Amino acid sequence: MKITIVCDVLGDPNNGTSIASYNLIDYMLRRGHQVHVVCPDKDKAGKKGYYVVPQRDFYMFNGYVEHNGIALSKRDDVVLMRAIKEADIVHIMMPFGLGKRSAYICNRYHIPCTAGFHVQAENFTSHFFAQKSRGANYLVYKYFFKKMYAYLDAIHYPTQFIRDTFENVIQMKTNGYVISNGISKDFYPKKVHRPEYLKDRILILFSGRYAKEKAHPVLIKAVKYSKYKNRIQLIFAGKGPQEKYLRKLAKKEGLKYPPIFQLFSHDQIVNTIRMCDLYVHPSNVEIEGISCLEAIAGGLIPVVSDSDKCATRNFAIDEHNLFKANDSEDLAKKIDYWISNPRKQAEIKAKYKNFLKKFDREFCMHEMERMFNETIARKKNEK
User: Fold this and answer.
1) DSSP secondary structure string, 288-333?
2) CA 243 centroid distance within chain
3) What gap in Å lies between CA 57 and CA 66, rounded to an integer?
4) What's the distance, CA 272 to chain centroid?
């Protein structure tokens, strides 16, 4: 199968969508498929299978875009045609300019085309300080995203949550496949050595880009309400524009141990999960929350926000896995509950073993391959 994957944003694997892109590329190559990738990454120029398009120029806002750690593609029809014309199927990762143009080309030349739903409206509106505006988010789904997603041959939804959200707004059923982005077996529990200076501390991990919608401040402020505040060490795995602000906030809140801010490699985050005591996911907006699943796979109990914009709320098995969105005091109570109840932790961990089976990455990537094959077959029957 000749597969072209279109990435408006690719870059480093420091966010869920980029990681999902690389995992899909790697799996399809391992399966023996011919994979072409369209992206704006200058460092990919000349690499086999990559087609590099120019980066979009935002003029006076370029500094802001760079500060947010993203590089958006500028459409280039010549490059797109080279990458798409011989493809058996095209898969689009994001609903921006490059992806939309690719969908148009595929439609015009009757090439099977699918896309992943990896961006919530709130991810978009948060950059314009309108994340909490129902009207703004509705318009993004209804008039911006629908222009591409409603006219594809199939849509990959990482969760039923985001499928329901989109279909409820556009008031129509889509040809959707609900498939998790999947977790690697690398994350399964294993004993690791904890550095001496961390031995007496309670390590609480949160993996997520340092962005407003991830709500890191809720966790930072929760520490002061915890009866274990003098032992808690926060670890923020990631990277992003809010780092300077978060460091200042932690200092202002008087945390005994300053949070550890670090973008970890794959092996480093696996080992970090294994040495931690608890995982907290305070994010208000999340399509899937694969980092939360990875932490659960590594043996950590999750405490997640009950935000109705966050799919991770569905990972809660016990009432103590959920805290009230943006409520640091309630979060502190849930943190204290789990730290104080090791026997309850062991009971819940056993239940999570069954819960995780449907998120195995190899199974999920196999389902993506099935979606591609079925889409190609349907398209042939339409002719």
Assistant:
1) --HHHHHHHHTTPPEEEE--TTBGGGGG-SSGGGEE-TT-HHHHHH
2) 18
3) 11
4) 19
Q: What is the mean pLDDT of residues 42-54?
A: 92
Please write the tens of the pLDDT for every residue from 172-231. 899 999 999 999 999 998 888 899 999 899 999 999 999 999 999 999 999 999 999 999
* Cα 81 from Cα 87, distance rounded (Å): 10
pTM listed for this prediction: 0.85
User: Helices in 110-264 by DSSP H: which ranges?
Assistant: 121-125, 134-139, 146-149, 160-170, 216-222, 243-252
CA–CA distance, 74 with 76 (Å, rounded to integer):
6
CA distances from 138 to 165, 278, 321 (A): 10, 35, 29
Distance CA 207, CA 301 (A): 14
**Cα Rg of the chain (Å, integer):** 21
Distance CA 118, CA 11 (A): 15
**Dihedral angle, C-alpha 29, 30, 33, 36, nearest 10 °:** 0
Q: Is 123 helix (H, G, I), strand (E, B) or coil?
A: helix
pLDDT in tens, 217-268: 999 999 999 999 999 999 999 989 999 999 999 999 999 999 999 999 999 9
CB contact at 8 A, 235 and 307:
no
Average pLDDT over residues 375-382: 91
Structure tokens belonging to residue 307: 């935000």
Q: What is the pLDDT of residues 12-27, one digit of tens each?
A: 777 788 889 999 999 9
Asked if 178 contacts 160 with a C-beta cutoff of 8 angstroms, the reply is: yes
The percentage of the chain sitting over the pLDDT mark of 90, rounded to a whole number, equals 71
DSSP category for residue 177: E
For the chain, how are helix, strand and coil distributed in percent, rounded to 5? 50, 15, 35
**Token digits of residue 93:** 């990762």
Whole-number Å distance between alpha carbons of 178 and 114: 13
Q: Indicate the pLDDT class of residue 332, thresholds 50, 70 and 90.
A: very high
